[in-house]
Amino acid sequence: MKTVLLGDFNLNWDIYNNKIIKGLRTGKKYHIFDFLANHSFEDIHPSFTHQGTTYKFHTFSSPTAKSRIDYIWTQAEIANTSIHSTIIEEETNRISDHRMLAAFFPSNIFLGNAPINRMKQRNALRRVPDYDKMTESKWKTFGDKTDQKLNEILSHHPLDSNRALNFQTALNKKWMVLKQAIKASSRKFIKQKTIGLNTRKDIRSQLLTDLYGESRYVVRILRRVNNVRFHPSTIDPQEWIAIRNKIINIANNRNFPLSPIITPSFTLNRSNNARFRSKIIKLKGHLDKLCEAQEEVHTKQQVKYYTEQRCTNYTKNQAAFIASALERRKRTIILDRIAVQRGSHTVLLTEEEDVKKETNRHFQTAARIPSTLPPQIPERWISTYQPLQHINDNIYNTLLEPPTDEE
Question: Is residue 179 domain-resident?
Fold first, then answer.
């Protein structure tokens, strides 16, 4: 299930987050933020970074202060697909005293994929067999099931050998039966995969994805630590062992020292809660710096990739270069077969030359040749188009001569 939670929360996330970092009680009114953070929801909000500090735009202003109390929250996997978020600067004071917050996502995230034929025209995706995952036993199973399906189809729709069919029609019918059996078996016994035909290579590296995930995990643990400070029994001992081991693994993988405060035998309680929280906050800062460094590397790689691609297209693929410059995509129709009427039979043509020849013939004859005869004037209009008798035809004889001095 995909969930988006948005509206006026009348709560300030920055105040809540500062309380979490300082280990203070957040209060009942912030329970909604606890729920969202513990269930991996992310705040989608326009921001900018200056000198290592991230600032987010306010959504509400009063005579004394400006604050951010309107939000759009969604799951982390959906938030990562967000295209853009912004504050709409239009005047909305007629209907609200808040500024309008908007986020944009690809339409297929919520509405599903477009029809397959439209996606193919846009060169977006294609469903193909994943032959790399096939083994000898799987191929044998596929062959046996195909034979079984073929016999099943023929038992319900036998080929009438006594019927007077021309060779090509009979061959087309047999091929359609065989094709139906192969497709039915492949859908069940051959693993399929979806490939993008025009996929942008802007996927984050696995390292950067892992760093963001670890940073979110550490923030969740900070919230749990605050609860332990006031309610020591909120974390089960077995659960604490798993948390501790994961924190140690994250620190070791990112070269961050936890000892002597956090060791493999460390147990969290009220007496060492403050020291543990301080160390986790430093770990969170360390992860954030690594994320910023990797994000910068990722951005430079993408800039370099698309710059080289545009230069390559300029010399070898001018059509792609123009489409990229105009931000347009080439849309095509895949025409690899055509059915034609031959006498009383319909024949399916699949050979490339036959398809091209029949397509040309169709467009040459589909539209009627315009008549070369002049249109007939209805009788009621004949008198209207007759020459006027009171006009002297000779007045036009000198129309093209140059003007005289007298004129």
Answer: yes
Residue where a domain terminates, one of 267, 291, 308: 308
Whether residues 140 and 77 fall in one domain: no
pLDDT in tens, 163-181: 545 566 666 777 778 888 8
Confidence of residue 402 (pLDDT cuts 50, 70, 90): confident
Query: How far apart are the C-alpha atoms of 88 and 98, rounded to whole Å?
Result: 10
Provide the domain count of the chain. 4
Tokens of 15: 């105040």
Structure-derived torsion over alpha carbons of residues 281, 53, 206, 300, reported in degrees to the nearest 10: -150
Q: Three-state SS for 337?
A: coil
For 297-308, write each residue's pLDDT tens digit. Answer: 888 888 888 888
Helix, strand, coil: what percent of the chain each, to 5?
Answer: 50, 15, 35
Q: Which residues pair with 71 in a beta bridge?
A: 7
Q: What are phi and psi of 5, to 5 degrees?
A: -115, 120
Asked whether the beta carbons of 87 and 59 are under 8 A apart, the reply is yes
Q: Is residue 387 part of a domain?
A: no
pTM of the model: 0.43
What is the extent of the structural domain holding 210?
206-308
